[in-house]
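ARCHIVE CARD
CATEGORY: sequence design from structure
SOURCE FIELD: tokenized fold
FIELD CONTENT:
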């Protein structure tokens, strides 16, 4: 299996200035789906800086925010609680399980939420409302970006701008990253759902829900009696060999080798903005920005919905993901992801993982295959990881920009099968 670098990257790179890490490898595999071991092949690329002007190169141990890739690890945390036989706090008999209803954990929920089960939350069929449009009055979290690592990195970025002769007093008009409002935190979602009039009409069928995974994270904390970052590190990340991956509590956690998000400013938008200020784009452009003839990158790491944990707070790196993907390949994925929900023909969702059926065809004589994967995207990041166990194939792609869609790489991956 030969990997074409240009083909893999053509739909996920917006600019040569973009920071990213790519790993894809086929290792020998054996079993009923393989008549003979496959030849090992690998492509590994690291490019760019941890944020514009940082001077710190991205490498195999650089930690990217994984966004919704986090969901499979939260799902693993739920599985661990079930395996442990954790007793339900509001029941004299019975243990936590996939059919446990929310009312058995959070007794003060409105009636329309009480019968929602853990399985429904895991598979995005609960019908709970998304928190993106939450009324501002329900957002109680402080602006976590204003302290800790993100603020320190932004201050360094701003200082480097100020040191550049080409930086101007009005440069902030072209620097959209600085979010100035409150950030939604996980407990806010519970309050939000209590104030919603009901469920989406699609309840019982697939509808992707970040709110559902925030609830799962709160359930982990309630039943384990400890912060989710501590539970997942001990019970999920370390057993997978992910020694240098972390669940981030924004403004409090220290993430080693952390990437901070970037935004792409096109020359067209720059020209329009600076013309209004009576300046040229060249006068306005931050002198330390990573630039090309089409535009440049600026620092943008945080937003209103980037501080929640249950739906997207994992930071990880290629070194750790290699061990995790190896573990996935060697495990019984069909048994683990057995409660699948149909998304569309040939595509399923189960416990934080998407599954694509790839049937054998005239151009695919190697037999049926299945792509187990998840992508993730939020302010300043887009990611994709997955495996194809029948081919011994594993892959991971992380970028410090959200203007791209990492899942588009799947088209090139499918052609390899």
């Amino acid at each position: 299996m030969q990997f074409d670098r240009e083909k893999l990257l053509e739909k996920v790179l917006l600019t040569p200035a973009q920071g990213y890490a790519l790993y894809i490898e086929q290792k020998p595999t054996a079993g009923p789906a393989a008549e003979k071991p496959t030849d090992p092949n690998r492509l590994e690329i690291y490019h760019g800086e941890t944020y514009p002007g940082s001077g710190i190169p991205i490498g195999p141990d650089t930690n990217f925010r994984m966004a919704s890739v986090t969901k499979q690890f939260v799902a693993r945390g739920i599985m661990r609680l079930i395996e442990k036989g954790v007793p339900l706090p509001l029941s004299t008999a019975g243990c936590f399980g996939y059919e446990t209803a929310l009312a058995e954990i959070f007794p003060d929920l409105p009636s329309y939420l009480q019968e929602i089960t853990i399985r429904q939350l895991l598979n995005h069929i609960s019908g709970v409302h998304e928190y993106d449009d939450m009324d501002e009055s329900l957002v109680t979290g402080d602006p976590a970006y204003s302290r800790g690592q993100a603020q320190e990195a932004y201050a360094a970025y701003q200082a480097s701008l100020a040191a550049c002769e080409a930086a101007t007093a009005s440069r902030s008009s072209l620097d959209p990253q600085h979010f100035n409002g409150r950030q939604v935190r996980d407990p806010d979602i519970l309050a939000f759902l209590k104030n919603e009039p009901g469920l989406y009409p699609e309840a019982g069928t697939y509808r992707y829900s970040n709110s559902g995974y925030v609830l799962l994270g709160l359930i982990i904390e309630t039943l384990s009696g400890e912060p989710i970052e501590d539970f997942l590190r001990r019970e999920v990340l370390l057993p997978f060999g992910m020694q240098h991956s972390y669940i981030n509590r924004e403004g409090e956690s220290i993430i080693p080798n952390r990437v901070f998000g970037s935004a792409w400013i096109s020359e067209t938008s720059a020209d329009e903005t600076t013309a209004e200020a009576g300046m040229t784009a060249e006068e306005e452009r931050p002198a330390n920005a990573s630039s090309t003839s089409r535009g440049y990158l600026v620092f943008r790491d945080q937003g209103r919905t980037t501080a929640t944990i249950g739906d997207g707070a994992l930071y990880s790196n290629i070194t750790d993901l290699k061990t995790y993907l190896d573990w996935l390949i060697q495990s019984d994925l069909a048994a683990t992801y057995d409660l699948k929900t149909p998304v569309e023909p040939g595509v399923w969702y189960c416990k934080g993982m998407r599954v694509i059926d790839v049937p054998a065809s005239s151009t695919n004589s190697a037999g049926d295959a299945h792509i187990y994967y998840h992508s993730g995207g939020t302010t300043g990041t887009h990611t994709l990881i997955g495996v194809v166990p029948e081919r011994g194939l594993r892959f991971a792609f992380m970028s410090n920009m959200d203007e791209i869609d990492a899942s588009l790489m799947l088209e090139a991956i499918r052609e390899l099968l």
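CARD ANNOTATION: The radius of gyration is 22 Å. DSSP finds 13 helices and 14 strands in the chain.
SHELF: design records, drawer C
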